[in-house]
Structure formats: C-alpha cells, structure tokens
C-alpha cells in the first residue's frame, strides 16, 4: 500500500499565528494525521536529509498552541499606549530605547537607517528565539518516548516509488533540492505547491526574492510529479513562468482551491485571553473596517491610508476605524512613517494588530462593518474568503485570483483607483441597507470550502496519474 | 636552408589563444621541414607578461602618442602603422632585427605588420639587396571581421576610417604576397576576390587544427571529483564577447532545462562575459548553479575535462576562420553539439560522426537535452583515422609544400 509522507519542516519552524501557506501545510497534515493511517511526517535536518517524526510529535506541532507564542500586540496612536503593553524582548527593548533617543544620539538623517537596522536585528533575534523554543519543545515532546531507550537520531525516511511525498510548505526557505535528491534516491512520487509566482512576476513587491523563487520553481519542475496550484490564476502564472525560462518538460499543474478558513462563529469573548479582550474592547467605541493581511507594499495599505485620511477630513470624530491585522512585512517604511505622521493615525482611527489568534480574529470579523482587500496581486486571497465565510462583505481589488476566490460575490475595484475605493467604502459605511443586502447575498450564495475538502481534492490530484 | 621570419602581434613562446596556437603550429611545421625560423612579435605595452616574450619580440609603449585610445579595437593596426611611420628607436630596432635575420621568406601572420615589412623591403629594393619572398597568412578576413564586430552605436567616422584602413591594408598584403594562406575555402575566395591578378601568386587553404592529445582516465576522474561533476557539457572560450553572445544566443532564455545535477563547465576567459550578458542577468539564480567555472586551466586539466564531457558545446555564431575548438572537440571523440558556423572550414557535418549540428536556438537546446539524456554512443571503428584530419600535421601539409616550393 502506498504511504503518504508529509514534510512538516515549515510547521515545525513556525511559532506564530500561521500565515496562509503555513496554514495549508498544517491543515493538510492534520487531515492526513486523522484520516490517512500510516502517514509519515518528516523534517529536513541540517544535512538536507528527511528524518521521520513520531506521530505524537506531529500532533504536538499541529496543535493550535504551537502557533500562539506571543500575546497580541496592538499598535495605534491611542490603543498602544492606553490599553496594551506588549511583552518586548531584550533586543527589541534596546532598539526601542535607541529609537526614543535616536535623534539626540545620531544625526537625524541616519535615524531611518538605525530603525531599519533595529528591525532586521529584531527579526533575526526573534527567529533565533523561536528556533530555540521549537527545539526545546521538540525535545520535551520526545522525552517521554525516549526515557527507556537511548537517545538516537531519527531514522531517515525511505519512501518507495509508490509512495506520495508532499512538500507544500515554505520550501524556498528550506531548499527544494532536498526533495529532488530524495526522489533521485527513492523514485517516490512528489507533490509540490505553487501558491503564487508574485516574486517573479512582480519583483518590485517582493524584495530580492525573484531569483530564489525562479530557482525554486525550476527545481520543483524537475522534481514534482504533480504541482498543485491554489488557483487557476497561479496555475496559469506558473505555466507562463516555465515558458519564460524555456523548460521543455514540466509536471502537470493541477488547481486545488484552498479551503475557506475555519469559522469560529460561536467564539466566546470570555474565552479570550486578557490581552485579546483588551484589544477587542479598545475597538468597541465605533464602527471599524477590517483588513486582514501582512502589512507590506503589495497589499496596498497605501490606498486605504489615503481613503482614511479623506474619511477623517470629512467626518472628523465620526470617522470609523481601520483595523489592520497582520505581521509587519517588507517595503513599507515610508508608508509606515506617513501613516504615523497623519492626523487620522493621531486620532486613533487606524490600528494595527499583530499576533492575533483565530479566536480573536473571529470576534474581529463578527464585529466589523465589512472587510477590504485592496491587494495589487494575489495567488488566492484567503482572508477575502474568510470574510465571506463570516458572512461579511469584502470589497476587493480586481486582481484575477481575488475574483476567483470570492466567486464573483464582491465588489471589485482597481487597486489604484482611489476615488472608487473611497466611494465604495463610504457607501457601505453609510448605507446599512446595501450592506445587509450584500451580506444576505453572500450568505445565500457563497459556497465555503472546508479544509477536509481541500485535503481530499489534493490527495485525489496527487493520486491521479496522467 | 631557408630562413623564415614570422611577423605577428602576439608572442609565441606560451601560446594560448587561437592565433598564437596557429602561428606556433606553423612555426613548428617550418622547423620540421628544416627551415630556420624566427619570430618578431610587435607587442602593445603590457598586453603580455615579460616571461611570455622571446628575444626578437618588440614591445611598443602603450602610451606612445601614435596609439589612439578611441580605437581600442584597432591596436594591431596601429602597431604596424606606428613601426612603419617611426623615425626613432622603434623602427631602428625592428629593421635591425630583420637585417640580422636576413630572411628568405617573410611570413606575415595577419596583415598588421605589413606596413613595417613593406618599408623594410622597399629599403632593400632601393639598396639593391636580395628581397625576401612574402607569405600572407591569416585566420580571418580582417576587414570583414572588423566591420561585423563594430559595436552598436559606434558608427562614427573614426571607426569607419579605421575599418577602411584595415581593408586597404589587407588588400595590399594579399596583392604583394607570393603565397596566400587562408583558413577556409570561403575565406580564400574572399581574399582572392581582392586581387586583380590572382594568377600571379599561389593560394592554399590550411584549416585550423590541433596537436594530438589523449585524456588520462585517472586525470579525468580527478578533475570530475575536484569540480564535483556528474553529467556535464563543456564550453571552452576565450575572453571574447562574441563567444558569450553565441553561448547565450543558442541557450537562451535560461539553463532551466538542465536538471539540478547537470552542469555546463565553462573554461577560459569567456566566463566573465557570460555573467555580464543580459540573458544571464535575467535568471542568474537558475543559471549560476548550473555553471561550473574553473577559469583558466592547464592543458592537462582541459584535456581531462574534454575526455569526461558528456557533450562538447560549440555555440559559435559569429567570427571568421575555422575554429580551433572545433578541431579539439572533434579530436576528443566526445559528442559535439555545434552550430553550422562552428563547422566552418571543416566541410560537411556528416563527415564527422560525433558532431550534431543545430542551427536554431530551439533545436540546439533540445539537442543538448537529448544528448544529456542518452549514454555516449560508441565511436565508429575508423574514428582514429577520421580524427587525424583535424591535426596540424594534416592541415599544414599544403602549406609546407607551398613554402618549400617558393623560389629563393
């Protein structure tokens, strides 16, 4: 019988609330853990070998607690100082201190550089701390099982040519070449993923990731028996990339739409942690609009900042709040500075929330007026589908994958069309009837997809031979 | 015994590039015939190391006022003109050397030093001394090459004038020679077309070739291990931009079609040009891991790489003459993937059992993929004699005969 092998390296190393790709790997692994007996989980070691993980360890890694390492952090002109004091690491505190005294200690012109340097160091330090915590947790999880036997290196996996090997996480970080080598040795059937080709097609929104991604997708073209794409858009984009670089033979690319994130409709406020309740309470005073997305240039928070500036100018105290949920990403230093200097920020009408748990997110969805998703380009748009699953209207950009993900149920606007964004947001803020009508249509029409649907479809795509 | 003086613009002591290898092989051929051969290489500044120079070589100061820095592509042309026009130490050194060597034959390798040779010959005629016979030998049609290589956007009057001077010089050298030697039939016809009286001189073709070599299996294994090679194609090229152009023209848009364990080993100075090329710069993360660039290698390592190559690449799309690399690739007995241009001077591709010819980029890339996918086919039984055709001994036989036949 063919066995399923799943590379869990990404999930093992990810100790924050999961972003889209991490969630996909986790949900698929969880499905296989429960429904596919004999599934083998593994991790890439420092030498590039895949080593097996015990099911008990896999359960621990796939538990929600694995991804809830830090308390929620709210950043806004009012809420940050008044309601929350996020726990800060030593390195972060050092740079907080430097940031506070920077202009006095160094020339003003050098201050942005110092701030960026601080951010880089903080990120690296945080990665080190997470890695250390992950290793410790693994050791602790393994401890009961190994009390009676000598500590040994986990066995190297040895799949057969009939076995399915899923490598669908952040493989460009871990090296797709390891799966290629394993396939050369064992002949196993490999399934790789394409979430999007944005770093290649839109390098201006992806830092310096174009080249690593081009090599990654080239390697998986030589490795995979099936590449699963999360949308027809990503499917077409990957096929176009393979034509651009002149590959002769490429594996079949099969679209498997992602699931709608799990909805926690009945999440209880009392069940929230204290820091989460504080973050929620701070938003209760007025209407808010939600944008769930990493704070990075491609996600086009810029258009929302302009809209909110305009809303605040026109409405003053009646201006609603824009709540941005997500990590700090790349390429937003200028925007971040502009945002913090704006009157709408000063008035507390823009709030950024980091380290938001699924439970808190459920409350944020339930409480918002509607959601927005003005991203310039996407491979799918998990948060837009999540909004629909909560029955909330999402105003989205007209990026092809967002149209695909939202099943044509949402107003779409070109990401740079400020007047139309302003008009649509003002319209749905002011016209409760229109909002209710849109929500009714979504509830009646939107077909949510469960992670089990996704997992079953992915397994079917993997097992189908040409 | 004939005394022959070769006039070149590069030294022959340690031959590396194609021109040096050809001239050195011709010198060896003359010596085997029992001729006394000397070489005067007029060197521009520090283009070559002092240890590469021989006793009669003449170094021209790079900062000499006669060198126009705007005409960097025409250094050889300017070198010949400088010696011919000089009234000082440079001319005296050149003339004294020729006086001492008293050649029966002056063998011009390319036309560059013809003005200097002409001045010396004219002085001999004026003094009533014996005049040597003149052999004009070239591995290119230089005027055409300079015109074709003219960089984009460089079409100014100065460049045009320099090209015209090269063409004039080449015609004069041909028309005053007793024997004209070309690299290919096509180039011989082009040189002949410059001449109003072709019947008054001898014409021969001596295509480029190589000295026999044999790869040592132990060295093949060593170099593979040292460079971490499994299945690889080999590309050898000097630091000449058209070599990089040809490579990327035939392999664009990227090397993604090579598997992660397949490599192209690039030997020679071309590697820097490969990495500066716009095709490489589009996908460096794909291309770089597929390239192995050991740089300049000694001859034994190069032979070992040839001996272990799954494919030898000849993606040559421009340039004159016949290619030494083609001869080397054919002689190696390894599968060769060539452009039609790479086979200039070597006749019909069907004659060479190891050679696959691909004219277009798509066919070239697909051919490389197919050649890497299959095991190296066995050589035909008579390959040992076939490959002898690309050795200097065979290719220079007509030249040896023609020079011997020149009346004293």
From TrEMBL, chain A:
Single annotated GO MF: glycosyltransferase activity
SUPFAM superfamilies linked to this entry: UDP-Glycosyltransferase/glycogen phosphorylase
Keywords: Transferase
Domain called Glycosyl transferase family: residue spans: 279-405
InterPro entries for this protein: Glyco_trans_1
Pfam families in the record: Glycos_transf_1
PANTHER family: GLYCOSYLTRANSFERASE WBBK-RELATED
The protein's name: Glycosyltransferase involved in cell wall biosynthesis
TrEMBL record, chain B:
Keyword annotations of the record: Transferase
Keyword Cell division appears in the UniProt entry: no
Domain Glycosyltransferase subfamily 4-like N-terminal, residue spans: 18-201
InterPro entries for this protein: Glyco_trans_4-like_N (IPR028098)
GO MF assignments: glycosyltransferase activity
Protein name: Glycosyltransferase involved in cell wall biosynthesis
Source organism of the structure: Dokdonella fugitiva
Lineage summary: Bacteria, Pseudomonadati, Pseudomonadota, Gammaproteobacteria, Lysobacterales
